[in-house]
Amino acid sequence: MEQTTSYKLLSKIDSPKDLRQLPVESLPEVCKELREMIIDELSRNPGHFGSSLGVIELTVALHYIYNTPYDRIVWDVGHQAYGHKILTGRRDRFCTNRKLNGLCPFPSPAESEYDTFTCGHASNSISAALGMAVAADKKGEADRHVVAVIGDGSMSGGLAFEGLNNASSIPNNLLIILNDNNMAIDRSVGGMKQYLLNLQTSEGYNRLRYIVSQKLHKIGILNDERRKSLLRFNNSLKSVLAQQQNIFEGMNIRYFGPVNGHDVCALAKVLKEIKDMKGPKLLHVHTVKGKGYKPAEEEATIWHAPGMFNKETGERIVKDTTGMPPLFQEVFGNTLLELAEQNEKIIGITPAMPTGCAMNILMKAMPDRAFDVGIAEGHAVTFSGGMAKEGLLPFCNIYSSFMQRAYDNIIHDVAIQKLNVVLCLDRAGLVGEDGPTHHGVFDMAYLRPIPNLTIASPYDEHELRRLMYTAQLPDQGPFVIRYPRGRGTQVDWKCPLEAIPIGKGRKLKEGADLAVITIGPIGNNAAKAIAEAEGQTGKSIAHYDLRFLKPLDKEMLHEIGKKFRFIVTVEDGVLKGGMGSAILEFMSDNGYTPVVKRLGIPDQFIQHGPAEALQAICGIDKTTIYHTLTHILNS
């Protein structure tokens, strides 16, 4: 990448080993160049912006002090890892980030040995890093250090607390770094507080502390139980002196901080001093999202992933969408508000995605009727179940790939009790540049076996509105609506709200020679392919919109089974256990023997790239559907 020639220090860093050859006084300049490179590149090649800028100094300090990749750094989540990628041998390929066949959008062990663990979903770093730390101990690798870097938002996830609880109860030397850019914890100020920080991190203090504890343990005064009691007393004394308390020390995890996350030299000093301390530790680091780029500092939400922008002026380059269909998310948000105005029982719930899923529309208009519960998908579903049990009607909006984390909650806390919860699965199907951790392709297969669920997917924006209206009618029970990221097809999207009969599909087009069954917006690709195939072959193709995966429209499927010898199913979900499987099961159970060709997501994780390109790779784009249809009709 030619831009690196303008970076005096960064252009010579091909690995963290090169970084560690520099004097510590050079680290601020490395941070400056690294920040400039990320700003420059992301202004042209969009990605996650603010989070990565916020941890530049922390990233540099970590790779400077720790012997990576032998020492392990586990990121949580990968939004903040662009600087890490650039410092670990991927500087010249960073221009391919998030592009088809380019660098992965998040750290991936398949891409680099420096990427220690998959981290597209939040809150897993502590558990994974603890596993690595314990493994290092079991393998006799006493010199291997393990660090988990977790954002304050990720700390709201239940898995993070499960990891913390276990870290406090088994022997390990894990370091947890809490990257705090929004927590309600005051900065450490005053002489006594700074003295305590210096004391806790000084090598002399901790050497003496270790020697004394070893001697007390040797003569039988300090056993494991007394050691924990002494640690609790020590933590209580620190809380009194520092005039602050935290849950970490209550869990017997040594706490250091808070420290300035943008003073790279001070960070390196602190990391060096606590590096070899025994036992679990937590370093609390204050950072600012978008640090070093004023527009991003001032509007963190917008600059999380701002798209292309003018780096000189900070002006975002927004495409003119005049005359274009709206995003499905916009239709959802506006329709939810419209329904909430009519039905006082409706409540909106989202786990930390109000802007992305457009729940912010309801939040702004009716702040007492919408809840952002933080990154806690399982809680979001069970919280919804509790509300539904008491007569409210929650619309719980969670991205499809994140709903995977709430599977037991759906079964145990909603489906068994037949509670009236509307589970809105945003980002269903192939999502594009965020890649395999975010593709919402498993939901139909993993939800279909669950009793009491209604599962539907709208063909377009009008159908989305009608399904939302239907779902909030009395006594519908658990109702799943899945829809994709991006724009629909209807510019005039605001149709009248009316009910759809549960379990009834639609015949979109008559035909005699072949039947195509689709579910959801992927049916639009099929409709275009059908028109071209009929023109090429001179034969007629019927098109059915299944609409409901559960319950199936048995009347419609009997009609298809009796009439057609050839059936093609198209879905934007996995083939194993998905809609095509449901059709095969129905045909077999009812004695029909058509030739069924299923098109959908194959049995592999799909890479990142433009959604259209990924559809072609999976064979659900218009061209592949067309070739499938013409091959069958001409054979």
Automatic annotation (TrEMBL):
One biological process term in Gene Ontology: isopentenyl diphosphate biosynthetic process, methylerythritol 4-phosphate pathway
Lineage, top-rank taxon, reads Bacteria
Sorted alphabetically, the keyword list is: Isoprene biosynthesis, Magnesium, Metal-binding, Thiamine biosynthesis, Thiamine pyrophosphate, Transferase
Q: What is the protein name for this chain? A: 1-deoxy-D-xylulose-5-phosphate synthase
Identify the GO cellular component terms for this protein: cytosol
An example of a GO molecular function for this protein is:
1-deoxy-D-xylulose-5-phosphate synthase activity
The entry sums up its family as follows: Belongs to the transketolase family. DXPS subfamily.
Query: Where on this chain does Mg(2+) bind?
Result: 152, 181
CDD domains per the UniProt record, alphabetical: TPP_DXS, TPP_PYR_DXS_TK_like
For this protein, the record's PROSITE patterns field holds: TRANSKETOLASE_2 (PS00802)
Source organism of the structure: Phocaeicola salanitronis (strain DSM 18170 / JCM 13657 / CCUG 60908 / BL78)
Which Pfam families does its entry note?
DXP_synthase_N, Transket_pyr, Transketolase_C
Q: Which cofactor does it need?
A: thiamine diphosphate; Mg(2+)
